[in-house]
Automatic annotation (TrEMBL):
It comes from the Eukaryota. Pfam families: Ras (PF00071). This is Ras and ef-hand domain-containing protein. The keyword Kinase does not apply. It is found in: Endomembrane system. PANTHER family: PTHR47978.
Length: 226
């Protein structure tokens, strides 16, 4: 097995053991480059021409996060209007959502608001959001400035990156940012909570020679959507 920063490869994916599995969904209008981003990250390839996603598809990639092998299950979905009923199922069980728009298509940027609304409605529990402005290699065709994207992301309390699936600019950075964030949200924080719960599971009081032990019930919070 060979490895690079944040990445694990193997001649047989079945051989890899992973500590955690995270579901990441990419949503956005059709033709913004969601499939190309996933292909670039998972396969280091860029397909020229138009690829239309029908329904829901996903790819997996094994990544090293904080010394642990994590399986990233990255879901792609059709952005066409006729597939708008899909996100209800898509968001279920997800840990993060990446909202993608095309910097050369202002309408695709305006549609992001609709996708965020669907994500909030279908899965109100905690998850990580990232906004991506794709196709920054097409400098002359840009319609959405970086400042506009940054301002929108700040207003919606999410991080922001601009990428090019074609040149691979910021693609790895985007996915690693998401994976590191959700690892801390769902694994590191959970481990800390469990350690704290173990310390506080019993509260022993002393009253003279009589010891009273109170059991403290700890209700675990849901970590993702079901």
């Amino acid at each position: 097995m060979s490895s690079t920063e944040g990445e694990l490869t193997s001649s047989s994916e079945e051989e890899l053991q992973y500590a955690s599995l995270f579901k990441i969904v990419l949503v956005g209008q059709g033709s913004v480059g969601k499939t190309c981003l996933i292909m670039q990250y998972c396969k280091n390839t860029f397909e020229t021409g138009t690829m239309v996603t029908i329904g829901i598809e996903f790819m997996t990639k094994y990544v090293d996060i904080h010394g642990k092998t994590v399986c990233a299950q990255i879901w792609d979905t059709a952005g066409q209007e006729k597939f708008r009923s899909i996100p209800a199922t898509l968001f279920r069980g997800s840990h993060a959502a990446i909202f993608v728009y095309d910097v050369t298509n202002y309408e695709s940027f305006e549609k992001v608001q609709d996708w965020i609304k669907q994500a909030d409605e279908h899965c109100p529990q905690k998850k990580y959001y990232l906004l991506i402005g794709n196709k920054i290699d097409r400098v002359q065709d840009r319609k959405v400035s970086k400042e506009v994207g940054e301002r929108f992301a700040k207003q919606h309390n999410m991080n922001f990156l601009e990428t090019s699936a074609k040149t691979a600019q910021n693609v790895n950075q985007a996915f690693l940012q998401v994976l590191n964030a959700i690892y801390d949200m769902f694994v590191t924080n959970q481990d800390n909570e469990e350690q704290e719960n173990n310390l506080n599971i019993k509260n022993v009081k002393s009253d003279g020679n009589i010891k009273i032990t109170e059991e403290i019930k700890v209700e675990k919070k849901k970590k993702c959507c079901n």
